[in-house]
Amino acid sequence: MRLVLGGCAVLVAALYGCRPTAPPHSGFTLLFLDRSPAASLGGLSWAPDPEHGRLLAFDRELRVVRQITNPRLATPMAVTPLGGTELLVTEHTGEGVVVDTMGDGRVVREWESPDVASLYAAGAGRVAATRSPYYVPQLSTPEPDSAPLIRMLDTLGRPIGRLATIRRPATPLLDYVVNAGAVAVGPDGAVYYAPLVRDEIRKYTPAGQLTWTAKRGLFPAGSEPDPEFLPAKGADLRLKKALVNVALALGPPPGGRGGRLYALGSDDSAATRLRVDVLDPATGAILATRHLGARETAVAVDASGVLAVFDADSLVARADGAAPSTREAFGPALELPDLAGDTVRLAGFRGKVTLVNFWASWCDPCREEFPHMAELYREFDRKDFEIAGVSDDVDSGPMLAFVRKYRPPFPILVGGGRMKQLYHYRGLPYSVLLDRQGRVIERIFGFGGAEEFRRLRQTIANEVRAP
Q1: E strand map for 234-321
Q2: Which residue of 159, 352, 374, 392 has the lowest C-beta tally within 10 Å?
Q3: Average pLDDT over residues 360-378
């Protein structure tokens, strides 16, 4: 269940819409999947699948051969290689999560966002962090003229430098919108930056000197507008802005020549008519442009440097039958008191399909979710299905008031504010659906409404009928 947060909903929807088609072909490296940059690592193309909270690995024929899930991967939006086996993942809300792709894909470290939400790219042993184009507050606290445009971090997420300074918009409250953008880092440490709402792409040397600025010519000379407020409709703030740059990726060297820089951008202000521009990283010259169809958001390149586009929905759908072929056990073992003080062990639900739901009284989406869970609980026989609602409230008073109001028919367990530390989830509500052997079927992040519960109901029904 996916929850899009805050004032970014309109922008994220614009970046996140339609998808593509092309015949199967071997020898591809994936560049972009559904408006997110992919990354090459270990002979595979890795890409985030934010809708399902996972990372996918594609082989050279763009078949899904691996997938990684983890409670820390709530809504991954971008990936970049960090060393020989590690991927640095950008979370929707800006956290950096480093995943080791070997073995079971464990998280080896993570850090908080240095901005409201950051986007990360790595290369030459360091990390570039920009203001994320995937989570953009409509308003933000004005920043000083000297604020860095790009923050440089080490591979532990610690600040080690800065590149350039922000551009000041006519309206200071729009600092974040104007300075959010895509980023890529070359193997030599050069940093490529493309602002979300301006027609330009820049290259900086590792020392911070501007090498070149490329433009597509989307606006007549001198007429490129800054974002500006439109008349309000009710309580909603509205902005007039052009969404120009969506993502950057550095591709493999075609035919043994130098690599190319690929810019996923837009021909229209809503980012519905997408284009890919191929740039020479040395000069910024635009070598080729491909306009994408309405369903073309998976973009790949073959060994000779020829672009190909695919239906991203179809590519991702292949993951449903892909690795891992075995389900992981849920852990650590859950043993908590219920409201009567009796200890309840999750192991006692073995033999039933079980939904473990973490919630708290202060969590607004949890309030919306509880009636749906109560309805779900009543639909299945107790011999087949169970729900364990785990409160992560520190104070028992609000928790008990919540329970009195919503009267859940399923067991409520008392987590005492320790659950996030134990289970490492990103936010609430967070649920884990377990099979009859206590293994993870899927992880569910946020509250996705009635439609998500219809899909969950079908998954449970299929699992209950399984031998």
Answers
A1: 239-240, 245-250, 261-266, 274-279, 286-291, 298-302, 307-310
A2: 159
A3: 95
Q: Is the pLDDT of residue 257 over 80?
A: no
* pLDDT for residue 266: 87
List Cβ neighbours of 119 (8 Å cut-off, separation of 6 or more). 77, 78, 90, 94, 129, 130, 131, 132, 133, 134, 181, 182, 183
Dump pLDDT digits (tens) for 146-158.
999 999 999 999 9
Strands (E), 36-139: 36-37, 39-41, 44-49, 54-58, 64-69, 76-81, 86-91, 96-100, 107-111, 118-123, 126-131
Q: Which residue has the higher pLDDT, 35 or 239?
A: 35
d(CA 345, CA 349): 8
Residues in the chain, total? 467
Please list, in sequence order, all residues whose beta carbon lies within 8 angstroms of the beta carbon of residue 208, skipping any fewer than 6 positions away. 161, 162, 163, 164
Question: What is the chain's percent helix, strand, coil content, to nearest 5?
Answer: 20, 35, 45
Give the model's confidence band at 237: pLDDT under 50 very low, under 70 low, under 90 confident, else very high.
low
Q: Six-digit token pair at 452?
A: 């998500």
Host H or E run for residue 315: helix 312-317
Residue 322 half-sphere exposure, CB side, CA atoms within 13 Å?
A: 20
Q: Calculate the alpha carbon distances from 286 to 135, 209, 281, 415 in Å.
A: 28, 21, 9, 56
Q: How far apart are CA 386 and CA 402, in angstroms?
A: 20
CA angle (184, 36, 204) in 5-degree steps: 15
Q: Hey, what amino acid is at 357?
A: N
For the sheet with 353-359, list strands across it: 412-414, 385-391, 353-359, 430-434, 440-445
